[in-house]
Amino acid sequence: MGKKVTVEVLVDGGKASAGPALGGTLGPLRVNMGQVIAQINEKTKDFKDMKVPVKVTVDEETKAFTLSVGTPPAAQLLKKELNLKKASGEPNKLKVDNLTIEQVIKVAKMKQDILLVRDLKAAVKTMLGTCQSCGFLVEGKPVLDILKEVDNGIYDKEIMAGLTESSKDKLDSYKSLRSELAKGREAAEKERAAKKAAAASATPAAPSATPAAPIASVSVPAAKKK
Asked: How many beta carbons lie within 10 A of that of residue 188, not counting itself?
């Protein structure tokens, strides 16, 4: 057994390649890149369209390797639950979508091990904080209201059972709300685009250089001979 070297990289879920991120760091270790990439893509395939932290530990002598796959940031996981590309740019003013408590519990369970919290309930409260910063409602309510309800035990049954799937009826009950939030999101995007276009058109063009005035020709009389 030789010395072990650990390389940490951030890859696209299910789409790792021998590009600079991996090739540049693992290439010098002469590890089997094809096998590494295949294993990374298999282990991260459920995190499509997300950045995933991966640790690759290589034995310098045998070239054997082990993988440790982390989880994407909580905000990315919550957006994935909603099939949403962007969170709110103004979370205190603009709410862009709605999550169920089961969806929040699902992400909390995925992140619990690295949050260093005492239990799942504490992990759920941490995820609710992320929902707040992303401009998400939960159960159709502002996050601060949901946090109070969590503290009061309203969702203890769901949390203790570790429920991660919402019923179809529950999801359907929020369709109208999500549709309204989507309209507000689209209107805000159009308004931002219009302001950006207006600002660009209002920017004065750089003044062109003023051409130099022509130099007048001056006749110098010939010197008189003495």
From this structure: 16
Q: What is the pTM of this model?
A: 0.73
Rounded (to 5) percent helix, strand, coil in the chain:
50, 15, 35
- Please say whether the dihedral angle defined by the alpha carbons of residues 123, 129, 134 and 135, taken in this order, is positive or negative: positive
The architecture that CATH gives domain 4-69 is 2-Layer Sandwich (3.30)
pLDDT digit string (tens) for 160-205? 999 999 999 999 999 999 999 999 999 998 988 898 888 888 866 5
**Beta carbons within 8 Å of 184's beta carbon, 6+ residues apart:** 94, 95, 96
Q: At what angle do helices 101-115 and 74-82 cross, to 10 degrees?
A: 160
d(CA 89, CA 183): 15
d(CA 25, CA 90): 38
Pairing of strands 4-12, 51-59: antiparallel
Architecture of domain 74-195: Orthogonal Bundle (1.10)
**Tokens 């660009």 belong to which residue?**
200
Structure tokens at 198: 């207006």
Return d(Cα 86, Cα 96) in angstroms, integer.
9
